[in-house]
Amino acid sequence: MKYPVEFCNVSKSFQRGEKASLLRDAIPLIFKRFQKGSFPDKKFWALKNLSFKVEKGETLGIIGYNGAGKTTTLKLLAGIMKPNEGEVVTQGRVSCLIAAGAGFHPLFTGRENIYLNGAIMGMKKKEIDRKFDSIVEFAGYGLYDYKKFIDTPVKRYSSGMFVRLGFAIAVHVEPEILLVDEVLAVGDFTFQRKCFEYMNSLKKSKTTIVMVSHSLSHIVNYCDRVILLRDGGIDAEGSPEKVVSVYEAEVSKKMNWTSAGNVPASKPRGGVILEKVKFKGAELIEGCIKLNYLQNIEIKFSYDTVSYPMDDVTFSFTVYRKADGLKCFSVFSDKQGFSIKNSKDSVKIILKKHNLLPGNYVFDVEVRSLKANVPLAVHRERNVIVQNPSSQYLPSQLYGVYHPENVSWFTG
Amino acid sequence: MVPRQEKKAENLFEILRELFKYRELLFKLTTRGIKVQYKQTFLGIVWAIFIPFTSMIIFAFIHKAKIITIDTGSIPYPIFVYCGLLPWIFFAGSLNASTQSLVNYASLIDKIYFPRAIIPLASVLSKVIDLVIASIFLIVLMVIYNIELHIAILAVPLILFIQIIFVSGLALFLSMGNLFYRDIGYIVSGIVPLMMFVTPVIYPIQMGSKQLQGVMVGLNPMIPIINAYRDLILRGRLPNFTELAIAVSLCFCLFFISLFWFHKKEHLFAENI
Questions:
Q1: Phi, psi at residue A162, to the nearest 5°?
Q2: Is the CB of A29 inside 8 Å of chain B's CB atoms?
Q3: Tell me, what's the ipTM?
Q4: Structure confidence at residue A231 (pLDDT)
Q5: CA angle (A266 as vertex; A372, A359 as ends), nearest 5
Q6: CA of B35: which chain A residue's CA is closest?
Q7: Confidence of residue A229 (pLDDT cuts 50, 70, 90)
Q8: A5-253: which CATH architecture?
Q9: H helices within A209-343, ranges in order?
């Protein structure tokens, strides 16, 4: 079987240090080279022996630190650069979203730029004629009236409108291979949504997508497989959840940083200390708490305080989706009966069948002051993985965070 | 639809075929060059006539005032000089523009794949329009000086084609040179005006010896090209075939060598620009 994208032992080096960009500097360098016989090796290997394949219709995510070789990989795929060693093979038309708006001339109108940029991306005039309205509509999605500006030079466009147009043209190339490099960070919320909808429709029509992003939630939501690059080689490869959690765990270890993805941190006021938070029935592996899908959650925690008794307190348990900080739910203890009477005591919360879909979550246990509406103490579990030991439970048509029960569909 | 090539073009034929596939882009970039040039200027396309016209006025004045004496035979000097200035200004203008062209398109080269040769070629072609517009005034001069038209004038497009091939060959080479070493651009803008003095632009070039004439023609194809324009348009006769044949073979060799070399190096452009 032929893969639409294939990297075979690809290495790519760049010159380290300053490179002569004037003849004045280059000529002495040539003499030096003759004198010494050899040239000091000032190569920097951006990619080293990198091999991977992408299947037709698959979406591959590439993550990694700055300088890991992500953009170089995309540029090699786009044919902008050639590898020093190895082979890059692509089958079919490539469209590259590194380039949104790159070919625009500021003096030209939106209309002229659509034709110009379309031609740069390899579209014929007839093809652009046919897609013109659709491009304008895409660019103006969610805006009041984009069409009004289509005959205005793009130098008077807002930067968001500019990028919208560039992106709209790039996606209309109808590529067989789409390369996306962190461009979705621009554009407003409606436009981002539109782009992802479009990428989903491309996915359905078996377009192969290679996506580079620092937004781990996008990676988890849209990729079928993820590669973690490090120093030009593959560090980890596999399902998005797995690779992203490896990456996150490493980041938090490296920076000694409270990595909780995009979950906002709350600052406890103090006065109460939470000790010994125990999850019953959960595995504890390398700082991760692993829960099974549709299991019970049972958390027991002890507190320690000097300012007792306290009447206006409540205990709460909150679950966030780790990737984007979505608050899945938050439950509070009853106002009565949960006052702090002693210096030390413990509280237990049980959720029968938690109904969270498999994925990564952050759990917060809080003691809150009701009157001041501030947390007094917070315990955060940053790496909670809900796993699915036997996939038979999980219906295939279930996405999101919540498992609704007793769903039936009827016709008529 | 232009499916991206899986294999890179290997020989000249394949390189030309790839360029042909991207002809619409060549056309688009050419018109882009023309539009950009005229979009924000007050005089617009009048600029195309302005430079050759003022140059002609100055040289005609120098000639009339007897500051220099130039023998142009039966041809009135103003039309003689204008007919030489047109191809020369095209040559100098397109060479200067195309040398900078790759660097000007840096943002594209860094981000999208397409045959890079399109860029210098388009910048040469977009200067042809200036030549065409400025030629309108040549027709006016021909009417004023009552120049008889000869059937040979039909061969002018052929000479223009040869000149475009020559300029394109240089443009491919120099734009690539300027991408790697920016002082190529300074060298070009310094040398090209000097070249005018060894080209029959404002005066005819007649060498004492046949050998020297041959060497000059071999080194500077613009000599037979400009002579050919004058022969066809003003003198109503066919140009010197030996000289022209030397120029033609030189121009085509230069063009194909440049194109091939350009193609071999173009994958290095993105990281060196």
A1: -60, -50
A2: no
A3: 0.79
A4: 87
A5: 130
A6: A108
A7: very high
A8: 3-Layer(aba) Sandwich (3.40)
A9: 216-222, 240-255
CB within 8 Å of B233: residues ≥ 6 apart: B83, B138, B142, B147, B153, B156
CA gyration radius, chain A? 27
Which residues on A lie below 8 Å from B184 (Cβ)? 23
Contact B28/A23, CB-based, under 8 Å? no
Q: How far apart are CA B179 and CA B117, in angstroms?
A: 13
| A23 touches B at CB < 8 Å | yes
Alpha-carbon span A190 to A198, nearest angstrom: 12
Phi, psi of A328 (to 5 degrees): -75, -50
3-state secondary structure of A85: strand
Give the type of residue at A200. N
**CB proximity A378 to B under 8 Å:** no
| Angle value at C-alpha B93, between B261 and A107, nearest 5 degrees | 95
- CA pseudo-torsion sign A241, A246, A249, A251: negative
Strands of the A85-90 sheet, one edge to the other: A43-54, A5-15, A85-90
d(CA A295, CA A316): 20
Q: Residues B218-262: pLDDT tens digits? A: 889 999 999 999 999 998 888 888 889 999 999 999 999 999 999
Of B24, B32, B183, the CB nearest to A105: B32
User: What is the rounded CA–CA span in Å between residue A284 and residue B108?
Assistant: 51
Per CB-CB distance under 8 Å, the chain B contacts of A92 are 3-4
Q: What is the total residue count of chain B? A: 273
Task: Tell me which residue has tokens 């996915």.
Answer: A203
Joined tokens for residue A353: 């069948």
Q: Are strands A359-369 and A374-387 parallel, antiparallel or unpaired?
A: antiparallel
Q: Which residues contact B58 (CB under 8 A, 6 or more apart)?
A: none
Looking at B145-231, list the stretches that DSSP marks H as alpha helix, in order from N- to C-terminal side: 156-180, 183-195, 210-219, 222-230
- Domain ranges (residues) in chain A: 5-253, 272-393
Q: Which contiguous run of DSSP H or E holds residue A346? A: strand A344-351
The gap from C-alpha A407 to its chain's centroid, in whole angstroms, comes to: 31
Contact B24 A119 (CB under 8 A): yes
Q: Do B113 and A80 touch (CB under 8 A)?
A: yes
> Residue A174 is encoded by which pair of tokens?
């109808």
Interface A-B, measured as beta-carbon pairs within 8 A, has a size of: 96
Q: Is there a shared CATH topology between the A5-253 domain and the A272-393 domain?
A: no
For residues B80 and B129, the answer to whether their CB atoms sit within 8 Å is: no
Residues paired with A319 in a beta bridge? A329, A363
pLDDT in tens, B120-174: 999 999 999 999 999 999 999 999 998 888 888 999 999 999 999 999 999 999 9
A2 touches chain B (CB under 8 A): no
Q: Identity (one letter) of the amino acid at A94?
A: V
From the CA atom positions of chain B, what is the Rg in Å? 20
Q: Which residue of A has its CA nearest to B185?
A: A22
Give the closest-approach CA distance of B17 to chain A in angstroms: 15
pTM for this one? Answer: 0.75
- What is the topology classification, in CATH, of domain A272-393? Immunoglobulin-like (2.60.40)
Res B5 pLDDT > 50: no
